[in-house]
Every structure is written in structure tokens, then in C-alpha cells.
Amino acid sequence: MHAFPVSLPLEFTLGCADGKPGNAAELFESVSQNIKVKRYSEALNDLNAAIETDPALSEAYFHRASILRQLCRYEESEKSYKKFLELKPGNSIGEKELSQLRQAQSALETAFSLFDSRDHTKGLEYLDKVVLVFSPACSKAKILKAKLLLAAKYYSSVISETGFILKEDENNLEALLLRGQAYYYLADHDVAQRHYQKGLRLDPEHSELKKAYFGLKNLLKKTKSAEDNVNKGKLRLAVEDYKGALALDPDHLAHNVHLHLGLCKVLVKLGRGKDASISCSEALNIDGELLEALVQRGEAKLLTEDWEGAVDDLKSAAQKSPQDMNIREALMRAEKALKMSKRKDWYKILGVSKTSSVAEIKRAYKKLALQWHPDKNVDNREEAEAQFREIAAAYEVLGDDEKRAKYDRGEDIEDMGMGGGGFNPFGGGGGQQFTFTFDGGFPGGFGGGGYGFNF
Fold first, then answer.
1. What residues does each domain of the chain span?
2. Is the pTM of this model over 0.85?
């Protein structure tokens, strides 16, 4: 960082306009000491008084210009440099610092433009590499840097930068606001609130501080209302509160991750699997390691019958927390559901529900057997045989109470045509012939054809 010159160049020590070099030396030593402890106003007052006493005191103009440059009071600084160069034409040090002033002034203007256009990285480069090198005491640049860091979501850096500003000026309202916002976005709401409150005690009508403070109060109120409604079992009200809280500040990721998770859990309880899965995915997009969101999304996918997705999520969760028995139990349920989803749905084949009685199942079977009997489907005999085989296999399971119970529990049932070819109602290939027997005979009395159907 460019340091303020605490000793005069050789050419400045040769004498003063009033012929009293000792007085000038004392003055500039006092100015240098004030600069060291950052008492810029006192240093400027001393220099202004010296210039008023002796308008030809070139060294005073030089020092004043340097201080003003460091404070980024560029227009005033440029006037002082020009006055110095009038008194000391061609002075290389003065010309160099005037050039640095113009670089810093241009860089600060550019940084503000980049902030407006949201090019945060480049804006920070201009401040760090130019403005704060030549104007290290520039409060405007320091505040702008904090704003750029906040916009770029470097919250810890904002806290650090504003800490330096507040150390010099504990009542700097902009620094209090920015520091509070950084703590807010880190979800350290208590500390954020204290910064807002301090700023509002200094200026109760500060619009940005008021907006930040009451925005935080409203967010916490909505969040608490959602949690209270969950505890009271008022789940639909909780859903609305969670959505309302999320809508208040979509950028508050550190807090919203918990809102998304809370919403997901409520939606799972309500059986709204699709919406729940979306909410948990939002939480995982913010924090991919959030175990509970992974588990809840697995549960949500079970509700939507996304069996493979549920297994994937719950398996990942089980790997992250292998000792959690609840996760293992949920994974077992998902794996069982996936396995069951891959077997044939005998109820669907017969066109009956899982709660159908034995009589209803038998009636459905008779109707379909008659419809798809190969002897009645000469023109599409191959399709009819395949359909008839499925119907027969379905009835073989669902028409038997014990086999049906095992099927409903997801247990394996051997030799029921479920694994590929073990069951053949036509008795082909030398296997045992399957005989269908309808109570009271089959209306119409057809049969034969070598299929051995005996109604």
C-alpha cells in the first residue's frame, strides 16, 4: 500500500517562505504524527492554517494534496497539487502523485459502474489494485468494497472489512448495515438484529436499516408460525407459512435451506409426494450433504411410486449414516417396493382391486377366460393364448387365499408363472395339463381343440 510521506523530500527542507525552517519542520512533524494515528482532520486544519499564514508554503500544499488524495477527496486534492506545481514547476514527485490521483479517481468511478452492472469481481480488482493503493483512507472505497463483497456473497469478508471501518468510526451507519446484512445471510440473526438496532438508535429514520430490521423480524415471525403450526398438527397452515417465509427473501440460502426441508417434511406427512420431492431437492441444491433432506426426498419418491429414485436416495443416506436404523428400515421398504413393482400385477390383469372378494375375482376370471379363450379367437390365436395364459396365472395366485396373502406381502411365490415360464395352462411340451373348472359348467359348452380345458 502506498504510504503517506512522513518526511519531506530533500528539496523541501532547504527553507520556507517565512525564513523559519524550524517552524515548518515542527508543523510537518505534527502533520505526520496525526496521519499515523489517522487524525486526518487535525492534520488538514494545521496545513490550512499554515497556508493561510503563508500562501507560498509549497510543502503545505503538497502535504494537503497527499492527505486529500488518500481520503479520495480528489477534486480538492487536484487543486492542491496544481498549486504546489505552480510553486514548484516540474517537480517529479508532485507530478507522479497527481497522476496517481487521476488513476485512483478513474478507478473509483469504474468500480461504482461495475457495482451497478453487477460485475463484482472486476469491481473488487479496481478497488484493491488501484483505489485503495493510492487512497488507503478512502471511506467511500471501503464501503463500496463491502457492498461488492456482500453482493458476491463473501459474507465473512464483509464482516472483516466492516470491522475495520467500525474500529475507526463505530457509528458508521453504512458499515453497521452491511455488517448486519452479512450476519443475516450467515443466518446469525441475533447478531444481525443487534447491528440494525444500533444503527436505528443513531438514526431511527434510516430507510435501509428499517427495511432490513423489519424484514428480519417478519421472516422470523413467519418461520416461527410455520413451526408452531407443525407442532399443533395444522399442517396445511404450516405449508402456507413455509411458502410465505420462503417468498420473503429467496436469496437467504442459509435460512431457506431449513425452510425447504421443513416444507418437504410437512408435504410428506400430507401425502403430497411430488411437491415434497421438489422442496427437498431445493434444500439439497443449497446443501448437498443435508442428510435429512435426502431421507425425506426418498420418502417423497415412495409416495409417487418412483421406486428406483427412492432406493437411490435412501441408499445414499444409509451410506452417509450406516448406524441409523430408521434410514435402514426406510431403505428396506423402498427396496421391497421396487422389487414388487417389477413383478406382474395380477390384480390389474384380472381388472380387480386389491380389496376384491374371492367371488369378485372368480367372476372376473370367468369373464376374461371366456373372452380370450383361444377357440373363440381363431384369427388372433397367438395373442389370445398369451392373454389366456396371463389370466390363468393371475387366478392361480389370487384364487388361492394363501398364495394371495403371500403375494400381497411381497413374498416370492414359486411356480406361479411369475419368473418366466413355470406355468403353462395349455400343458404343452410334455408338462402337466392345466384344467379350468367352472362351477356349474361353462355356458356354451365349448372346449376341445387339444387344449384340455374342462369347464
1. 10-152, 250-341, 344-455
2. no
